[in-house]
Design brief:
The structure holds two protein chains of two kinds.
Chain A (H helix, E strand, L loop, with lengths): L1 E3 H11 L4 E4 L6 H7 L5 E4 L3 H15 L3 E5 L3 H4 L2 H9 L4 E7 L15 H5 L5 E5 L5 H13 L6 E6 H5 L1 E3 L19 H13 L3 E5 L1 H5 L3 H11 L3 E3 L14 E4 L6 H9 L2 E5 L5 H4 L10 E6 L13 E4 L2 H8 L9 H15 L14 H11 L5 E4 L3 H9 L8 E2 L10 H11 L5 E6 H6 L3 H8 L3 E7 L4 H10 L14 H7 L4 E4 L2 H12 L5 E6 L30
Parallel strand pairs in A: 2-3, 2-4, 4-5, 5-7, 6-7, 9-10, 9-12, 10-11, 12-13, 13-14, 15-16, 15-17, 17-18, 18-20, 19-20
Antiparallel strand pairs in A: 1-8
Helix pairs in contact in A: 1-2, 1-7, 3-5, 3-18, 11-14, 12-15, 16-17, 16-23
Chain B lengths: L1 E9 L4 H11 L3 E9 L5 E9 L4 H13 L3 E6 L5 E11 L3 H13 L3 E5 L4 E7 L1 H15 E6 L3 E4 L21 H4 L4
Antiparallel strand pairs in B: 1-3, 1-4, 2-3, 5-7, 5-8, 5-9, 6-7
Helix pairs in contact in B: 3-4
Classes of the chains: A alpha/beta, B alpha+beta.
């Protein structure tokens, strides 16, 4: 049957299981928007294309499916860029479809023409420029396959306007044939045996659990492996939730703002089992002294991550879930009691400095607020963040026991991610309660999406941690620039009025005794809500490994005082 | 040290750009890059010469990153394999009739050819390894080279020898020589 290119796009997209798309129409994608009306697709109209990208990203992270966003040519497409880069750095499967000027106009600087495939080349897993309608079916099929398989990532399809309107025979491609793209599944047996030998010898092993565990849905395999070998599990920022925080083997977050006992465990370990993580500089500290006594086994789907930052003894390139599942019957049971005891001694020492032990001083502290939200929601909310201090505090104190409920921009560190990704996450499961924890700075970058939340009646609660500073930059200026504060004093609008102007109910909380009630109020109705918490201004995130220092050279919270 | 890679890629628009962009983004230094068709119309072949100051470690990195490109089918490192390597140069030398014979005899020694003769210039075509071409250029230079163009190096392994493939399992590569990846540490 003959169909237009735009119809073929939706035929294929619906077959991929897409039900919701986030986007913004414009001149070059109008035929796509017109055809969309005939398909069972819910479209979320955003206020800025960056919002669409983050929503599709948030949807993908929370649902485990491929997200999808639309934008028109030129500025519509370039507004997606930050969101595409965010998805790329965190390996999130999103398909972006942008409109492009007609094929015969390409290269002529036509109205709203921008070289989108050129711009997005380094920030997509793959991209396509489609100039003819008869290419669309195959391209869309490939795009979704590439986005979700192997190491997932964003794929962009730039479709010329003529290809959207031209008609051709539609036949859905039965299979994807890509000679140059065949991700590995199993790791070779010899390498597995080599790994088992190292596991046998280990006295002080640690598992480093990364985003790959979530991406390959290997949570159960990880749990079985960890229990069988009694190996403690430390998590990267993005790996949080893959292993239950309340489990006795859980060490919590590692790295720059990781817990003391976690980083000490890594530095003193004799075997590191890196599961779907990439030894980012934020988790290793200086590489010169990183885990100096440890043999290293690296299970990773992307061969270019092997040996990239840290040289490993046994690389196991393959699908994480498959490889761990292959390994489990090959390894023996261990107890590692001495090692676990050592770690819990370190933990007790670190905990003594925890801000959670503080007696109320009349001020609001973000860690306490995060903990209050955690208590109120039973730790079951989907939580998104912006980037900075509040992000680290949320990672530290919103202890997650379940996967795919922690959405944060890790690799790219994109401010403005919190609110739109929360809206996207809500579409993944509308029964869920979604909390976006944001800073006063980041919130203002994408605050316009509040109206999107209202238009969709998304059950998204925004907690703005307002310290009137760009807090993390301020902290670095305090620690490393002799407290010379440069461009970090942040004047904010009246957030309550701003929210109310968007028709979002809002409250400002300045006193300790108002906290619990405000959180309960926000949870008492469906739909968006905003709480502005006016918090202690010059708090610092501890522990902290200064950039370039060794992982066990942590600055720790002073024992008493208000944070400095 | 310079490493030579042979990459088979899909013959599609933009693939050369993807490879070049990858090398720029990952900060690899291309010494020479030659692309052309192969016996299969859907496949192009690239010979890439890259400066690898960290030796095999860099080579590993380059191969792994090339495979991240969806259009890259196969990569082999032929640096240490017995192989035939060629580069072609056209060199225009300013010589009048009185010195043509000199160019001619040089060309003969290098098995080069004179492919164009004008009133006051000739074009010499030379094929060979980098060293051989450099040698000829040095001897022609005093005569007055006014223009030169080179194709960049192309390579092919001798006999049935393949180059080294460091990515077992990727794109159906066989799991041979597994120690390779483990020993690739910097």
């Amino acid at each position: 049957m003959k169909k237009t290119g735009a119809e073929i796009l939706w035929e294929c997209v619906v077959r991929e299981g897409v039900e919701v798309v986030f986007g913004y129409p414009g001149g070059a994608n109008m035929p796509i928007y017109d055809a969309m009306l005939s398909y069972p697709i819910h479209h979320v109209l955003v206020r800025h294309e960056q919002g669409a990208a983050h929503m599709a990203d948030g949807y993908a992270r929370a649902s485990g499916k491929v997200g999808m966003a639309l934008a028109t040519s030129g500025p519509g497409a370039t507004n997606l860029i930050t969101g595409i880069a965010t998805a790329m750095m965190d390996s999130v499967p999103v398909v972006f479809v942008t409109g492009q000027v007609a094929a015969h106009l390409i290269g002529g600087d036509a109205f709203q023409e921008v070289d989108v495939t050129g711009i997005t080349l380094p920030i997509t897993k793959h991209n396509y420029l489609v100039t003819r309608a008869d290419e669309i079916a195959e391209v869309v099929r490939e795009a979704f396959y590439i986005a979700r398989s192997g190491r997932p990532g964003p794929v962009l399809i730039d479709i010329c306007k003529n290809a959207q309107v031209e008609q051709c025979e539609f036949e859905y491609p039965r299979e994807v044939k890509l000679v140059g793209y065949q991700p590995v599944d199993h790791a070779p047996k010899e390498s597995l045996e080599h790994a088992v030998k190292l596991i046998e010898k280990a006295q002080r092993p640690v598992i480093l659990c990364g985003h790959g565990v979530l991406m390959s849905k290997a949570e159960e395999a990880l749990m079985n492996f960890a229990i069988k070998t009694q190996t403690p599990v430390a998590s990267t920022l993005l790996g949080l939730g893959a292993f239950p925080a309340s489990h006795e083997l859980s060490l919590g977050m590692m790295g720059m703002h990781g817990e003391v006992h976690t980083n000490l465990a890594i530095q003193n370990s004799d075997l590191i089992l890196a599961f779907g993580m990439r030894f980012d500089d934020r988790v290793t500290g200086t590489l010169k002294t990183y885990a100096p006594h440890a043999k290293k086994i690296h299970i990773e789907i992307d061969p270019s991550e092997v040996h990239k930052n840290v040289a490993v003894d046994v690389p196991l390139v393959g699908n994480l879930k498959t490889v761990i599942t292959d390994l489990i019957p090959m390894v023996d049971e261990y107890d590692h009691d001495e090692w676990k005891k050592q770690i819990s001694d370190w933990k007790a020492e670190g905990d003594s400095r925890s801000i959670m032990n503080w007696n109320p001083d009349g001020k609001l502290h973000v860690p306490h607020l995060v903990s209050d939200i955690w208590k109120a929601t039973g730790g079951n909310a989907v939580v998104t963040t912006d980037v900075g201090q509040h992000q680290m505090w949320t990672a530290q104190y919103y202890a997650l026991d379940r996967p795919n409920r922690w959405l944060t921009s890790g690799g790219a560190g994109t401010m403005g991610f919190g609110l739109p990704s929360a809206i996207g996450a809500w579409f993944a499961n509308k029964e869920e309660e979604v909390w976006a924890v944001a800073g006063d700075g980041g919130f203002q970058m994408t605050a316009a999406e509040l109206t999107t939340a209202v238009q969709e009646n998304a059950n998204v609660k925004v907690a703005i941690m307002n310290n009137s500073f760009l807090g993390m930059v301020r902290q670095w200026q305090e620690f490393f620039f002799e407290k010379r504060y440069s461009a970090v004093n942040m004047l904010s609008p009246n957030f309550v009025k701003l929210a109310e102007a968007h028709n979002v109910p809002a409250r400002r909380v300045t006193k300790l005794e108002e906290v619990e009630e405000a959180i309960a109020w926000a949870r008492s109705f469906k739909g968006p809500a905003v709480i502005e918490f006016v918090v202690e201004q010059e708090e610092a995130v501890y522990p902290m490994v200064p950039a370039g220092a060794a992982l066990d050279q942590m600055l720790q919270r002073p024992l008493k005082g208000s944070g400095d | 040290m310079n490493y030579t890679f042979i990459a088979l890629v899909e013959n599609k628009p933009g693939v050369l750009n993807r490879v070049a962009s990858l090398f720029r983004r990952r900060n690899f230094n291309i010494e020479s890059l030659a692309v052309g068709r192969t016996e299969k119309p859907e496949i192009s072949r690239m010979t890439v010469v890259v400066d690898c100051p960290n030796g095999d470690y860099d080579a590993h990195k380059i191969e792994a990153n090339l495979y991240k490109l969806v259009n890259v089918i196969d990569v082999q490192d032929v640096t240490h394999q017995p192989s035939v390597t060629r580069d072609l140069a056209l060199i225009k030398v300013m010589v009048g009739p009185e010195k043509r014979a000199e160019v001619n005899s040089l060309a003969e020694i290098f098995r080069a050819r004179i492919v164009d003769v004008a009133a006051d210039s000739v074009i010499v075509e030379i094929t060979g390894t980098e060293d051989k071409i450099e040698g000829m250029i040095e001897l022609l230079r005093p005569l007055g080279i006014v223009e030169m163009v080179r194709t960049g190096q192309v390579s092919m392994t001798r006999g049935v020898n393949d180059g080294v493939r460091r990515m077992p399992g990727v794109n159906g590569n066989r799991f041979e020589d597994l120690s390779e990846m483990a020993e690739m540490a910097p």
